[in-house]
Amino acid sequence: MSEATRARIRAFITGEILFDSGGEAPGDDGPLLDGVLDSLGLNQMVAFIEDQFGLEVSDPEMSTANFRTITAIDELIERKLALRSEAS
């Protein structure tokens, strides 16, 4: 897991998803799917991952397991980056 990646995710959530509410992103293991990420927010998060990390998130990967917390999102990114590195 990467603290730098988790910090980027937190900053995105705070700046792009919660900007209207003035809220802060939850801690790394705080729930995101209970009021932070709705369907639009999930799509925004996927676009962020694809744009910022050069990864493609498939429909099956858009699961609650992968987006339930900032840590889970970080783990998804790390797995996909490792797979891409192995394929190179």
Written account of the structure:
There is one protein chain. The chain has about 90 residues and is mainly alpha-helical. It has a single domain (about 5-85), classed as ACP-like (Non-ribosomal Peptide Synthetase Peptidyl Carrier Protein, Chain A). Helices cover about 60% and strands about 0% of the residues. The chain is built from 4 helices and no strands. Helix 1 packs across helix 2 (about 40-55) and helix 1 (about 5-15) packs across helix 4.
CATH superfamily: ACP-like
Total count of strands: 0
Number of domains: 1
Shape: globular
CATH architecture: Orthogonal Bundle
Oligomerization state: single chain
Largest sheet: none
Helix/strand-derived category reads mainly alpha
Order of helices and strands: HHHH
Radius of gyration: 12 Å
Mean of all residue-level pLDDT scores: 93
For the terminal residues, how far apart are their CA atoms?
21 Å
The portion of residues assigned to helices is 55-70%
Low-confidence regions: none
Distinct helical segment count? 4
Output the CATH topology: Non-ribosomal Peptide Synthetase Peptidyl Carrier Protein, Chain A
- CATH C-level class is Mainly Alpha
Q: Give the amount of beta strand, in percent.
A: under 5%
